[in-house]
Write a structure and sequence with these properties.
The chain is mainly β and 149 residues long. It has one domain. The protein has three helices and nine strands, in the order βββββααββαββ. The strands form two sheets. The protein has a six-stranded antiparallel beta barrel with strand order 1-2-3-9-8-7. The chain has a two-stranded parallel ribbon with strand order 5-6. The longest helix is centred in the last third of the chain and has 11 residues. The radius of gyration is 16 Å and the shape is globular.
Length: 149
């Protein structure tokens, strides 16, 4: 199913330097393209399983929460939590949910994000691939591509 959604929440994962635990910083992005592909696959032993793939395209002209700027993941990892909240990035293992984040907690654990997605009846997407396609083409075709399961 291809659709333009009102918004997605990208939860950028990082290791908290004080607790050494993985935390996530939510960023709401509006005006994205969202593709959900549902299928199934058969294992060698004949067992069927669901195979759901997601493709999200974030146009260069998308509206990002608090006008946060995109930063490459390696540079983003060097920031402290307070500074990281001024940017957003994409990296494998990040989490994405459709909709807007209504909470006020700027740092979340994966269990809190899972509970939020479950309460809202939303799919929790784990980023498995991404690409920065913002350098070629016209302003209207430049985007970041996020793939996940």
């Amino acid at each position: 199913m291809i659709t333009n959604v009102d918004a997605v929440i990208v939860f950028n994962g990082r290791t908290d330097k004080a607790t050494r635990r993985k935390i996530y910083i939510p960023t709401v992005i509006r005006g994205v393209s969202y593709v959900e592909g549902k299928g199934s696959k058969v294992a060698d032993n004949g067992v069927w399983s669901d195979d759901v793939q997601y493709k999200i395209r974030v146009p260069l002209i998308a509206v990002v929460q608090d006008n946060r700027k995109y930063m490459r993941d390696l540079n983003y990892a060097k920031l402290d939590n307070e500074e990281a909240a001024k940017y957003w990035t994409i990296q494998k293992g990040d989490l994405v949910v459709r909709g807007e984040y209504a909470g006020d907690n700027p740092l979340l654990g994966e269990d809190e994000i899972s509970a939020y997605a479950k309460e809202q009846g939303l799919d929790l997407i784990s980023v498995t691939e991404y690409a920065d396609d913002t350098s070629g083409g016209s302003l209207y075709t430049r985007h970041w591509r996020i793939g996940g399961k």
